[in-house]
Amino acid sequence: MVSSTSDQQPLDVFVSGLLFFDVVFSGLDHAPKLGTEAWTTDMATGPGGIANFAYALSRLGLRTGLAAAFGDDTFGRHCWDTLTDQEGVDLTRSRRFPGWATPTTVSLAYDGDRALVTHGAPAPLSPDEMIGDPPPARAAIVHLRPEPVTWPSRTGGLVFADVGWDPTQQWPRSMLDQLSTCHAFMPNAHEAMSYTRTDTPTAALSKLAELVPLAVVTRGGDGALAADATTGETAEIPGLPVDVIDPTGAGDIFGAALVAATLAGLPLVERLRFANLCAALSVRRAGGASSAPTLADLSRWWKGVADPQVRRDHAFISDLLEG
Hints:
Layout: E1 11-16, E2 19-26, E3 42-49, H1 51-59, E4 64-67, E5 69-71, H2 74-86, E6 95-97, E7 104-110, E8 113-119, H3 127-131, E9 137-144, E10 158-163, E11 184-185, H4 189-196, H5 201-208, E12 214-218, E13 224-228, E14 233-237, H6 250-263, H7 268-282, H8 295-304, H9 308-313, H10 316-322
Parallel strand pairs: 1-4, 1-9, 2-7, 5-6, 9-10, 10-11, 11-12
Antiparallel strand pairs: 2-3, 7-8, 12-13, 13-14
Helix pairs in contact: 1-6, 4-5, 6-7
């Protein structure tokens, strides 16, 4: 899962969407109560939102470009420097906007889940205006939004779509019209059922499989299910047992790892297992993007696996790490 880092080489993955500065508190015993002060056992700060994808992809050895709006404030400068200097993400088509505040999210993790509080204003430019002519890439990742964007298909690569929380909770079906130019759609179970007006993840997957070649529905700690019309494969995998410290960003990390595994040419069930593993490793520590596993993390996990069934199911990891 290693790619060239030469400037003459095209990107492996180009990503665009909303970037946030994340403040994550984990280790809460319960939801905060009015009039009280709660102390947490751990916290993390750093880039979030679409940056979760960029972080995870770069850490898996893929040459990654990101187009996002950054405020020219303390949070925006920190996110920019972290992505470029620490993670090696190409921000050529990102923009800094003076006077615009970087959107900020506070994540409160407790009871194996998290609640989010976000502040921000729309970016000064739309993704199409900011990106212009996108760079060639083997794959592109886009967050669906009410205003359709046209740049993903112009990268020439496979387009993977994700979708965020709908604050109106109307879940308009028109959002799914944008899937006509996409190779894959990777919502979580709640999002999938809400947009398809179905009652189970399996029923939602069936509806989504009519719209995209690769339909994936994630179920958090319960694993994921998918259907790939290009190969004729279907697969369903359980979750991996892990101690959940903070699930912030786990769905994005799952999606990034699924893209990486798809580009590596793995069978569908192995793509799901790899994505599920990366997400599972991420929830063991606080943070969104910063919790994305590196290749070294995957190697340490593989060397420490003692369960015979888990080793059989994930035997492909050894080949990926050596590739």
